[in-house]
């Protein structure tokens, strides 16, 4: 299937093929989006948990007009109408690094292989004679344990930094369109609600750090941010008792849905 055909099927009208003309694809590469890449692609930093104020999008909120244009008017970033604006990414910054829920296995593996002398090996005792620390992932608390005790990511060696989340990409408004009737917003998208939750929890963590609250309070709030960020990726398998779980609202469920759509579209094309 060509890229051309795929976009027509996705959006119903030839919106994207106008921007990206039909082309032959020789290869596609996938890689992890680093914090620098996310910041480079971002046009807005989300700092406000409120989306709308008196029906008007709040600047720095999740409905900031720079996220793209899907209704009447023009985009605040590229100046195009909804027919030309492809949508733009934003980001949320965290004061402390978080574990990326999809990167747990490589993270724990890298930690187990790490030795302060710099030699990486799978052995329990390093060539330098040092007995390595035991690292495990505890699913219920969403935390890495070092020798049976919680080890926050800020204490990890710098080699594993690439598996941690310091900034979270916020998708364009096209990916999380609000529920509107006419020109009035009746509700936000599920993903937007989850992002609002992350911004709120991050605010409370920042406040705890600024007020120099006791370390157990800071860790409690840090845990809440970790849970909120894990939920946006995959709410299945995270602690359910902490919040009311909304089914099928996370990124992985959305990806599964999109893949099923592509599968169905390509089946039809073959017939
Ligand atoms: Zn735009
Ligand atoms: Zn060593």
Short note summarizing the structure:
With about 270 residues, the protein is an alpha+beta fold. The protein is built from 7 helices and 10 strands.
* Multimeric state: single chain
CATH superfamily: RNA polymerase II, clamp domain
Determine the fraction of residues in helical runs and give it as a percent range: 25-40%
Helix/strand class: alpha+beta
What is the alpha-carbon Rg in Å?
22 Å
Distance between the termini: 13 Å
Number of domains: 1
| Unique ligands | zinc ion
Number of strands: 10
Number of alpha- plus pi-helical segments: 7
Percentage beta strand: 15-25%
Low-confidence stretches: 1-15, 236-242
Mean of pLDDT = 82
Q: Might you state the CATH topology name?
A: DNA Excision Repair, Uvrb, Chain A
Strand order of the largest sheet: 1-4-8
Please provide the ordered H/E string of secondary-structure elements. Answer: HHHEEEEHEEEEEEHHH
The CATH C-level class name = Few Secondary Structures
The main β sheet shows up as:
3 strands, mixed
What general outline do the C-alpha atoms trace? globular
CATH architecture: Irregular
Question: What does this 3D model show about the protein?
Answer:
This protein has helices at residues 3-11, 16-19, 35-41, 104-113, 190-210, 215-233, 251-270; strands at 42-45, 52-53, 56-57, 89-99, 135-138, 143-146, 149-150, 164-170, 179-181, 184-187. It is an alpha+beta fold. It has a single domain (32-270), classed as RNA polymerase II, clamp domain (DNA Excision Repair, Uvrb, Chain A). The strands form four sheets. Strands 1-4-8 form a three-stranded mixed sheet. The chain has a three-stranded antiparallel sheet with strand order 5-6-7, with helices on one face. Strands 2-3 form a two-stranded antiparallel sheet. Helix 5 runs antiparallel to helix 6 (215-233). The longest helix has 21 residues, at 190-210. The model is unreliable at 1-15 and 236-242 (pLDDT under 50).
């Amino acid at each position: 299937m060509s890229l051309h055909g795929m976009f027509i099927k996705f959006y119903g009208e030839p919106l994207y093929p106008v921007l990206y003309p039909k082309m032959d694809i020789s290869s596609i590469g996938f890689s992890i989006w680093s914090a620098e890449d996310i910041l480079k692609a971002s046009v807005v930093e989300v700092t406000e948990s409120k989306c709308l104020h008196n029906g008007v999008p709040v600047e720095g909120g999740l409905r900031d007009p720079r996220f793209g244009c899907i209704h009447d008017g023009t985009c605040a970033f590229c100046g195009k109408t909804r027919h030309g604006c492809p949508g733009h990414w934003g980001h949320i910054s965290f004061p402390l690094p978080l574990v990326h829920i999809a990167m747990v296995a490589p993270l724990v593996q890298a930690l187990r292989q790490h030795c302060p002398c710099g030699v990486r090996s799978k052995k329990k005792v390093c060539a330098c004679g040092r007995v390595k620390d035991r690292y495990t992932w505890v699913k219920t608390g969403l935390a890495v344990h070092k020798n049976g005790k919680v080890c926050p990511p800020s204490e990890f060696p710098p080699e594993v930094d690439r598996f941690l989340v310091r900034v979270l990409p916020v998708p364009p408004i096209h990916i999380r369109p609000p529920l509107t009737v006419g020109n009035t917003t009746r509700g936000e998208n599920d993903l937007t609600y989850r992002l609002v939750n992350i911004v709120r929890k991050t605010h409370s963590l920042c406040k705890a750090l600024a007020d120099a609250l006791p370390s157990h309070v800071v860790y409690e709030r840090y845990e809440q941010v970790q849970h909120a960020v894990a939920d946006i990726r995959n709410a299945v398998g995270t602690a359910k008792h902490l919040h009311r779980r909304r089914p099928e609202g996370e990124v992985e469920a959305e990806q599964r849905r999109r893949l099923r759509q592509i599968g169905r579209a390509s089946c039809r094309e073959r017939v």
